[in-house]
Write a structure and sequence with these properties.
Layout (H helix, E strand, L loop, with lengths): L1 H24 L5 E7 L15 H19 L3 E5 L9 H10 L4 E8 L11 E6 L5 H11 L8 H4 L22 H17 L5 E7 L2 H5 L4 E8 L3 H8 L1 H30 L1 H10 L12 E9 L16 E6 L2 E9 L2 H12 L6 E6 L2 E3 L1
Parallel strand pairs: 1-2, 1-3, 3-6, 4-5
Antiparallel strand pairs: 4-6, 7-9, 7-10, 8-9, 10-11
């Protein structure tokens, strides 16, 4: 068993290196997003009292794609499936990798054994080592789709979704896209909670096969618990599906805006200089630059600097939104640096996320 596991780890690392290398040196233009509605065809996914996961995620996925296409003509939107058909996990990744996609969004619904009381809410996953049994159970459920495939043991180098030792490989894998994935996951989770008013079950890490195979920033969104009556009713409705799609779209819009800023800086430095030099002299200089902070807490009143609610974070800032005080930690013009700070803050405040400021005002 140990020998087989070692071979599996080495093989997976080799595949990851080849895929990453191909992506890194590929010449491409434009932005491509792949929307991956989970399950399909003979694989219904999780089953609720009157709905199936495969139908809900397909509906939300197509609405999301339409929103992106209508507002971003420069974005190429691809689907792993846009009809009720079964697509193998490795084929889903292949679609994204062949297109040299820039972002991968996998949509799912969560479920709990009907003998247990089901929780509710949304959670957004990135590839990584699951830190809890709950995360492992979610990964097992979603990875079990390979059992519908022929010769899955050979195709996935001996991976068995029901064997905990199969997941050891994720400890040995490094994901160069992890920071971008965590950033996008935080944006999505924040929008789903605040725009769609879903219960917050946090951004998490777990070993998903489909995320392991793709060579780009990627997330897996659990839109709700189909085993929870309230969540299922919401996800079945047209209005619920539109709201979920719109929330993910708003997160995509914010992510794409930052992507475009960075792309312009790194690919058009001379153009930026020329434009600045030739701009008409109006006497007004636009010096506004983005500043990133970590929002970690909201309160109905201003807190004392030594308040126990701040859990030792110091120094902190706050801004007022309506009648609510929103507390932030850290300031950086570097998004990567802000992402590192986010990880630190999330050890104390799991729901923390990145916010952007310009001229001292929150950019929404």
């Amino acid at each position: 068993m140990l020998l087989r596991l070692k071979k599996l780890i080495v093989c997976c690392l080799g595949v990851l290196f080849l895929i990453t290398a191909e992506s890194a040196f590929a010449q491409k233009s434009g932005f491509t997003v792949v929307i991956d509605p989970g399950h399909g065809g003979r694989d219904p996914g999780a089953i609720g009292s009157g709905s199936k996961e495969k139908d809900i995620v397909l509906a939300v996925g197509k609405k999301l794609g339409e929103l992106i296409r209508n507002s971003h003509p420069d974005v190429n939107v691809l689907y792993t499936r846009d009809t009720d058909r079964f697509v193998e996990l490795n084929k889903r990744a292949e679609i994204a990798n062949k297109a040299k996609a820039d972002l991968y969004i996998s949509l799912h619904c969560n479920a709990l054994d009907r003998r247990k009381r089901s929780p509710q809410g949304v959670e957004t996953f990135v590839l990584g080592l699951h830190r809890s049994k709950d995360n492992l159970d979610v990964a097992k459920a979603e990875n079990s789709v390979i059992l519908y495939e022929e010769d899955y043991s050979t195709k996935y180098q001996g991976f068995n979704p029901n064997e905990p030792e199969s997941y050891i490989m994720f400890e040995f894998m490094t994901d160069q896209y992890l920071q971008q994935s965590v950033y996008f996951a935080s944006l999505v989770q924040n929008r789903l909670v605040n725009n769609s008013k879903r219960a917050n079950r946090d951004v998490r890490q777990a070993g998903f096969l489909v995320l392991r195979e793709v060579a780009m920033p990627s997330i897996l969104v659990e839109l709700g618990y189909i085993s929870n009556a309230s969540d299922e009713r919401y996800m079945k409705t047209e209005s619920g599906q539109k709201s979920l799609a719109n929330s993910v779209y708003l997160a995509f819009k914010e992510y794409k805006r930052e992507y475009d800023k960075k792309s312009h800086v790194f690919t058009h430095p001379q153009q930026r200089k020329t434009t600045a030099d030739s701009a008409p002299k109006t006497g007004i200089t636009d010096t506004a630059t983005s500043e990133y902070r970590i929002q970690f807490l909201t309160a109905p009143r201003k807190l004392a600097n030594n308040s126990s609610q701040l859990k030792g974070l110091n120094p902190v800032d706050f801004y007022v939104d309506g009648s609510t005080y929103k507390y932030t930690y850290g300031r950086s013009s570097d998004l990567n640096e802000a992402t590192k700070t986010l990880r630190t803050v999330q050890t104390r405040f799991k729901d923390a996320f990145i916010v952007e400021f310009k001229d001292g005002k929150r950019v929404k």
